[in-house]
Amino acid sequence: MPNSKARITAIGSYVPERKLTNYDLEKLVDTNDEWIVQRTGIKERRIVQSDESTSDISYKAVLNLMERYNKSMDDVDMVIVCTMTPDFKTPSVASLVQAKLDIKNAGALDINTACSGFTYGLHVANGLITSGLHKKILVIGADAMSKITDFEDRSTCILFGDGGGAVLVEYDEKQPGFLSANVGSEGEKGKSLYCSNLSHHIFEEEIINTGKLVQNGREVYKWAVTTVPKGIKSVMENASLPLNKVDWFIPHSANLRIIESICEKVDLPIEKTLYSLVNYGNTSAGSIPLSLDMGVLEGNIKNGDKLLLYGFGGGLAHAGMLIEWNLG
Ligand code: UT7
Predict the structure, then answer these.
(1) Rounded mean pLDDT of 304-328?
(2) 215 C-alpha to center of ligand 1: Å?
């Protein structure tokens, strides 16, 4: 990987106000708080109102960033929104956000790699800036998962929530933040986690529950706890650094049991891990930026820290990276 010339300089986040607790879900499906907490660690999640969409979450996350870091969006030259729940097939969420922020001279594109979206977005932004093509990129990870959740399916509706975060990635040759990365995809396992669009089949299998998320939880679980540890090893090897140099591990907030298993496999103390799932559930592409921002706001993440981010999920795809955190 060529030496990075990019750095994350600011962060913001947003979650909708409406809460959906495990006790609320007990009234919708045959489940209970104890089962959900024991199997996933999740206690509650946030849900958008019917007139709120991913572009609203994205826009509000950027407003939060602007308020806190006094950053102008006027010279942003690319808007990247990572999401699997776009408001429309077209226009892209990135174009909607570009318009809402009145950014005049920027490209706009959506990236859909489901729960690994945000780390893919950062990887692309680092590449675009390091290559010299762009200077200032907004990377947003946001999902309104409640729009595609089947609230009659107890195996999925207990997992997901809505929310997201935004970071600004800027040109910085002197203090670059992107140290190493690892990306991968096993598309042949795509039928373990899908949401149909125009297709009626996924590989040889007929689509069930059109328009809603369908998941083989056990398969995704098994894949995640074998793939992510290997990916982490690649990230650290690519950076030529041992894992004990990592200050914070910020994995996709899918399920606390998955995170614990990954930590055990790579010998990383769970105390060094930050996750947003307890109060926000699995927010797909929103989960890593939400966890990052919680870490910043709670005073855990400090400038100079080395952060290991790892996104994984639908695709099945994954992307991880080691970054040095230096806002401002
Ligand atoms: O971000 C995308 C990545 N996705 C993920 O990371 C999800 C990965 N998978 C998981 O997190 C877990 O597989 C789940 C949390 C989805 C399920 O946990 P599990 O421990 O794998 O449970 P299971 O599917 O093996 O089901 C065990 C039992 C079953 O009953 P029987 O067959 O043993 O009688 C299920 O019917 O638990 C039952 N069950 C439930 N019971 C109460 C499934 N969902 C529920 C529920 N409440 N909500």
Answers:
(1) 97
(2) 10
